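Lecture notes, unit on protein representations.

Consider one protein chain, 455 amino acids long.
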Amino acid sequence: MRLSTFVLVFALALNAYSLDTSIVDIKNYQLLRSSGKSSLYEINTSQSSYASAPLLIELVGTRYEMGYAYGNLLSKEIKEAYNFLLTSMLGSHWYDEILKVAVGEVLDWQWNDYLSIQLPLAYKDELTGLRDGAAAAGCPDCGSMVTRAIGASNMPGDVQDYLLVLLRELNKTKIEEWPRRLQKSEDSNMHCSMFGVWGSRTAGQRLFSARNLDWNKDTGINKAKLVAVYKPEDGGIAHATVGFAGLYGALAGMSAEGLTVHEANLEENEITWEGFPFVLRLRYVMESAKNLLEARQVWMKTNNTVGFNHMVASANDAAAYAKDKSSSYAALAMETMYNYTAFFHDNDPREASALYEDTTTGQTSVHIGFPLKEVVWRTNHGYDPIIRQHYEWSQSPSSWSMQRYMFMHEAFTSYERNKIAIDVTQAINITAIVGDKGHHAYECMDVSSSKRYSV
């Protein structure tokens, strides 16, 4: 593996017009452990404020061998991350140990009876290897912890919707036959944003694609930040995922063919567990597709579970677009729920015509969609009419999801007005703006030093 080609970038202080930037390169990769052809490294950087350095694992071999190496080399991190996550979700009271056991049993049932069924054999082999490798390293429960984490990542955003999908699977009834519930407020812990931009908006007409993950803070799992590079020897395209040890799959990722994948929660009421868990499904897209057409074909041959916004972007399509503007687009947003996917490319008319009807304030027909050419972006709401019909959170212009959508719109139009081509720094800036920083989207404070930074 050419480790020197992997770039880790940190944005310390960025401003859309007067940029004070610090881009931190990799200083070295410290080898920690090896298993077969696979190795685990610590990524060391200069000027990084991380208390725990990110990890990089390179997985090479058969499917079983890659899984074995993952479990064997990361068993300690898997166990710690799993316990950190459950404690942050359930608490640390005496009775919470009972809850943890109960949650584990529910997640095991969810995995065994539903989420594992539609997995390709290759991924089942990987997970068998992971279980064996972790057990050999002294963690016989790590295999279950990993499949539970996959199940937890595939849950809806709140307990009410979890009960909704639970009842659906137990009763095998159609959700539209149930009484509609009151619309819920947007979950303050579920903030994800993503974009793909290309063509005349970018330096060299290259593709820039990014995703911001904002979830529960202070869980402790940030100690296990992980880039996992998969190099299957059965012909699958090499690809990398970005996330945490123990979450086996992709929250975001990119392939050797320049295909990127992202996800953001989309709270729908048409949901199921009888499908392909998204963290592994995104890996499947990366290792199976070389462009957006192939990615869409792979997607349509597999099944949705709960509601998500997903995005796939393609450097190959961006290169084709640079040569022939009529040839293609370079990013595709996918708004999903049970048995339905709505595909969006740039400047989509459904997005442009989306209106919000607010009968409580007398404001009717408020315009909420503002697509642009050569860029696609999403937060935690959708624009397809059917997706919007089943959406559970507020679609108000004042919702945080809508505000973040508009922050990105303003960033793209600002760079366009100022004739600034989007490069690495600008892409990081856009990602930083929509990161949850408290009361102000364009400013954050370092608590330890009381210094304020603008983005």
